Amino acid sequence: NTTSMAIFPSHLEDNRRAAKRLESVVGTQVSVEKETEVLDINSSPTIEMKNVSFSYPDEERETLNGINLSFPVGTKSAIVGPSGSGKSTILSLLLNFNKVDAGEILLNHQDINDIDKESIWKHSNVVLQENHFFFGTVKDNLAIASENATNEELQDVLKKVELEHLQLNSQVLEKGANLSGGEKQRLAIARAMLKNSFIWMLDEPTSSMDSLTEAKIYEELFQLAANDTLVLISHRLNGLEKMDQIIVMEDGKVVEVGNYEDLMQKQGYFYELKQIEQSVFQG
Ligand code: ATP
C-alpha cells in the first residue's frame, strides 16, 4: 500500500504539492500513497474539516478556501448554495475521492489520509448525482450493497423508495438506460438504505423527483439514519427544518452555518436565497 516518492521531500503535504506540479507538467496523475489503517467503527463517527483548501489540477483559482466544519456524531447536515459554489467538492474530499491541498479532514479525530480509503467507502452510504448501474437484474444491482439480503428485505427496501412496481428479476440495462432519472435515484437510495452503514453522503439524491415522493423517501431515510452522521447536499431550500445544521456555501467559502430557525432569523444569505426560491416558484 506504500509507494514513496523519494525524489520529493519526505513530508506528505509537500509531496502532494510536488505531485500536483508534476502532474501539470507530465499530464498524468501521480499517486502519493502512504501506509494507512483500516477504518474500524461500530457506531457513527464525528467528521471535521479544519482550514481545508482545495483546487482541481490545472485550476488557478481555489475551489474551496479555508473551510472549517464539524459534523458531530449522529448529526444531520445540509449543504446548500448556488451551482458551482463547491458543495460536491466538499463531499468528494470527505470521501477522500480527492485530497486536500491544505488543512485536514479528521474522522474520529484521525487524519483521513491515514485511513484506508476503501474502508471509508465500506462504512459510507453514498448517493451521488450520477450512480453506477450495470446490466443485470434489479436484484443484482441492489445486492452489491448487501450480498446476504433476502428477497423480502430487497422488496421491502424497494417499497421504501416507492419502486414496488419493479420486480427483483426486472432487467436493468447498462448505466440504468431503461430507468427514468427519478427511478435511478430511487434505486441508488435503495442501495444506500440496504447498506445501512454509519455514514451517509448524499449529493442531491432526489433532484429528479417530485416533492411528494421526495418527502416520503426522506422520511424513510431519516428514520434509518437516525443515529448516523449524515451530510446531504440539497438543491432545494425547503424541508430543511429538521436538519441539525445548514451550511451555506458561496464561491468556495462557507458563508453561514446554523439551523433553519437561526438562519431565517438572521435574515442573511440563506434567507435571501429562500426569498429568491419562493419568488421563482410563485412565478
Ligand atoms: P452544483 O450545485 O452545480 O452541483 P457545486 O456547488 O456542487 O455545484 P462543485 O461541483 O463542487 O460545485 O464545483 C465547484 C467548482 O469546481 C466549479 O467551478 C466547478 O466548475 C469546478 N469543478 C468541479 N469539478 C471539477 C473538476 N473535476 N475539474 C475541474 N474543476 C472542477
UniProtKB/TrEMBL annotation:
Signal peptide: none annotated. Residues 144-171 form a coiled coil. Residues 47-276 form the ABC transporter domain. It is found in: Cell membrane. This is Thiol reductant ABC exporter subunit CydC. It comes from Oceanobacillus luteolus. The lineage of its organism: Bacteria, Bacillati, Bacillota, Bacilli, Bacillales. The gene is cydC. The chain holds residues 289 to 571 of 571 of the full protein.
